[in-house]
């Protein structure tokens, strides 16, 4: 890398690069920034010329950081945060030492996140938490880009790390539970206290979004038939209300029991391999700020409280 040339890299280019690293595609970054894709491409090209090496690996499904890209991202996050803090100070605005940025997978917003935030407001009212929902890849990219401090991830067997980048993320398992199935209260499957896996054959399913990997979310894993997907919905409450209306069944974590709409039961499944799901709290390896550590404690306590109340 030509050090003197890289010192000429613009702050705009660094912001664009961080956005691309977080969004995973040039198109998504352009949309988020309000730029054209060609403008984003020019900024990345200028940054790569200054660095003297490729920063992104272009792939069919988006972009991935190269080794040099990871170095630049790590430094860019620090520079951007310092510039933003300086701008706030010059404008006479207070710093934000008590703010924590949390990302979470969709169903965590139905039970774990609200419970933890309520407890944190009670014990540490000066801490401000901002949150966003996202898929695991999006949340991991945001952690790497420095736009999230903590992320709640859903992990499935064989429980691999959420990415292969270095340094490895720090992961802590908050809880591990079996996957269940949500059924209408008047459905024949709701008559007992569990569902036999063989009885899932021929059912109508309510799955995730209509495209991409999310499409199969909501269907029992390993079902040895082509599932009949009657409805697709990303929102968990929408899925459960469709179940309550008798439109089909869907997989669901047992933790959603406390958030069920009327006319829905969540039951365990027996007769096949156990389908375990972990809730994992992820962060970068450096020590967390005190507010982030307090939020992590509240999330752990909320998960434990839910486990003991089952």
Description:
The chain has 310 residues and is an alpha/beta fold. The chain has 3 domains: 88 residues, Arc Repressor Mutant, subunit A; 109 residues, D-Maltodextrin-Binding Protein, domain 2 (3-Layer(aba) Sandwich), CATH 3.40.190.10; 98 residues, 3-Layer(aba) Sandwich (D-Maltodextrin-Binding Protein, domain 2), CATH 3.40.190. The chain is built from 9 helices and 12 strands. The strands form 3 sheets. Strands 3, 4, 5, 6, 7, 10, 11 and 12 form an 8-stranded mixed beta sheet that branches. Strands 1-2 form a two-stranded antiparallel ribbon. Strand 3, helix 6 and strand 4 form a beta-alpha-beta unit. Helix 3 crosses helix 4. The protein is globular. The protein starts with a helix and ends with a helix. The N terminus is likely disordered.
